[in-house]
Design a protein that fits this description.
This protein has six helices and three strands, in the order ααβααββαα. By secondary structure, the protein is mainly alpha-helical. It has a domain of 94 residues: Winged helix-like DNA-binding domain superfamily/Winged helix DNA-binding domain (Arc Repressor Mutant, subunit A), CATH 1.10.10.10.
Length: 162
């Protein structure tokens, strides 16, 4: 770190680095990786909204990863009995994905673990500080999201990005 940095800037940087090292969101649940858990949540959410199954391309778009990456993840989930693939009889290239009963249970177990984790954080911080933290994190997200959008626009316009 640069000695000329503002002390508050240094504190923010250290706080973000501590979260990165902690890897609090990277824990495995029921033998599933965090990426697989995100995939299970995505499938559950998609199948409850408007359809009985999801397509690989839909999962890929929602998780912002390539279809081949999703296909690999789905192979592992299928091998563990967490999802089922259904080939469309009218177009064999189209594959629908659903959670199995075991997949539903693991997804619920992950949801319960996340909920318990945040309930514990709320108890630790109290309601007022929890609300303050939520508001601050929302502002942090908006800041970095706007900064990324601004950089993307600059690239499209041919401008230099600082």
């Amino acid at each position: 770190m640069d000695e000329r940095s503002n002390p508050t800037e240094q504190r923010l940087l250290m706080a973000f680095m501590q979260f990165h090292r902690l890897e609090w969101h990277q824990r495995s649940i029921a033998g599933c990786t965090p990426g697989e858990i995100r995939g299970l949540f995505c499938i559950r959410r998609g199948t409850k909204l408007d359809t009985s199954e999801m397509k690989v391309s839909e999962i890929s778009k929602l998780l912002h990863v390539t279809s081949p990456t999703i296909t690999q993840m789905l192979k592992g989930l299928e091998a563990h009995g967490l999802i089922a693939r259904h080939i469309d009889p009218t177009d064999r290239r189209v594959v629908g994905i659903t959670l199995t009963e075991k997949g539903e249970k693991v997804t619920q177990q992950a949801a319960d673990a996340f909920s318990a984790s945040f309930e514990g954080l709320m108890e630790y911080l109290g309601e007022e500080q929890s609300n303050q933290l939520a508001e601050l994190l929302s502002k942090v997200f908006r800041y970095f999201n706007e900064k990324a959008a601004s950089a993307d626009n600059a690239l499209w316009n041919g401008d230099e990005v600082a």
